[in-house]
Each structure stands twice: as C-alpha cells, then as structure tokens.
Amino acid sequence: MHHHGVTLERIYQARRRLAGEAVRTPLVPSAALSARFDAEILLKLETHQPTGAFKLRGATNMIAALIERHGREALAAGVVTASTGNHGRAVAYAAARQGVPAVICLSRLVPPDKVAAVEALGAEVRRVGASQDEAFEEVERLVRERGMTLIPPFDDPLVAAGQGTIGLELMEECPALDRVIVGLSGGGLLGGIGAAVKAIRPACRVTGVSLSRGAAMWESLRAGRPVAVEEVESLGDSLGGGIGADNRCTLPLVREVMDDHCQVSERAIADAMVTLLEHEKVLVEGAAAVGLAALSEHGLDVRGQRVALILSGNAVSLATLDRARALAGR
Predict the structure, then answer these.
(1) Of 30, 44, 55, 185, which one is the catalytic site residue?
(2) 55 labelled catalytic
(3) Is 89 exposed, middle or buried (0-12, 13-18, 19+ CB in 10 A)?
(4) Residue in 83, 107, 296, 312 annotated catalytic
(5) Looking at the whole model, is its pTM more than 0.70?
(6) Is residue 185 annotated as a catalytic residue, yes or no?
(7) Which of 199, 197, 196, 221 is nearest to 210 (CA)?
(8) Mean pLDDT confidence for 193-222
(9) CA distances in angstroms from 72 to 111, 122, 127, 148, 226, listed in the order given
(10) Domains and their CATH numbers in the chain
C-alpha cells in the first residue's frame, strides 16, 4: 500500500461501484489531429458523462464506498461540498442516485444559472459569504455540527481511485498506449489515471498540463510541499485553485506517476477549444482542451506514437466560447 492510498486494486473496486452509474466513455481517434501531429491521437470523451465531466466518477465512488463500509445510516445526515462547477454537479447527481441528501455550499458571487443547475440535480444549495473560502467554512461547520460527510473535490484516495477508472478504460481500449496527456489541477484526475496506467503499462508516459499562471500543484511539486498560488481568471478555470495546505493524497500521488509537465497560455487553450469544436465537433471547457494546447504550443514530439488526450468536461457557456474564438483570432 502506497502512502497515498491509490492502488490498482482500489481502482478496480471503484470500477465495480461505477457500473451503471458513471459511463464508460468513448475513446475516439481523431483523423485531423493524427495527420497534423503524425501520430495516432485518441480523444477520451469524458464529456459524455451524465453531468458532462469526469468528476462524477470520483464522487460516485466515494459515496458508494462509504455506504458499503458503514451502511446507509452513516450518510443519513447527508454529504456536503463547495463547488460551483463539475464537482458540485457530480456530488449532487451521485448523492441523488444513491438516495443520500446533499448540500452544496456556494458563495453569493455564483451566478443564478449555476445555482439552478445544481438545484435541478436535487441538491440543496446554501449561499454563504463572498468567496469560495467562506463557502468552504460553511461546509466545515455542517460537518462539525450536523455530522454531514465531506466529499472533497480531489484530495482523497476514493475520489482519485474513481477518476483512475479512466486509466483502466484507456489500457483496455489501447493496450499499447505510448502517452496520456492530462490536465493537472488538484491532481485527482492525473493521479488516478497515472496510478492505473503505470501499474498496467509503466512505459506509458504521463504528461501533466497546467495553466501558465496559478499552477498550484506544479509549484507545490517544485517546492516539495503544498504552496498557495494566486488564482487568476482563465479559460481553463476548472484548473485554478489550490491543492490544500494539508494535502495528503494527490501531491505524493502526482509526484509518483507524472513523467513530465508543461504550462499552456490562454491563447493556446482558446485555439484548442475552437479546433476541437470545429474539426471534432466536440464542445469542451478550457480545462479539457489543455492536452491539445500543449501539443500545439510546445511542439511535443509524438511522431509515430499512440497518444490519448483527456477531454475532461464540457462546462462551457456560449459567452466563454465567443471569448475563446476572439482570443484565437478565429
């Protein structure tokens, strides 16, 4: 057992729990990108999850595992988290499917449409404070006072193992995969996928991609401990945010499984978003386009290789897409 708690066995256990809940998503070859990079470029479409993003895997696995271990009554007080985006939707959806109450704490800055989207999935939304930090203080209060269970967005072995089921699918669909390129934020996605892939095929390279500014995990790896970075507005907003001052799982996990790393500019992300929509007819959020952005901007040499890009989610509005088109000059 590794110190981070994410083993191949636990990823297989997660897969069993996800059956019928999260989708086994398509891995599709891109003719256009394969020709462009002289490689076999495969797109892993996590955009096909019922909530539109990979986060459903980790949330579902954690809630199901807790019910399995401690019985449904252990979650009678409900589950709680703070997230405006993919994780909030995932927890709301997974909890409803498991018949467990869910509270999602959001700051008062979150726009009404995002609040409505979470409520539509059956969760109770609490509007508190003027920042994500204040919303999280409310989460901690509910855990303390009402005995609710926190479902963290990434820093938990059950969450990371859930995301790791993507790695199992990659290995089954393409056993000779040479490289997987994954967005790096809190490290649950890259860490989980990397744990599965490295256990099955150590020769497969795991490449992480962060934003050019606010790359908390990358800065933390370089410093050897969790580092707080200033969050900046980005098309890849899902990759923003810190890794937690007391990160226990994903920092050591990413350190173990990631081979190399690069950072991408806003313009490269914008261009990749437009390219994926135009040539692949796939609508993705900025965070999901960073693999292609890295290939383009850094000229990574993938000639003759089999390379998977993780298209992690589709939480993007038309307004944001317009912004990307303008920035990409398209």
Answers:
(1) 55
(2) yes
(3) buried
(4) 312
(5) yes
(6) no
(7) 221
(8) 96
(9) 33, 18, 27, 13, 34
(10) 8-53+156-328 (3.40.50.1100), 78-147 (3.40.50.1100)
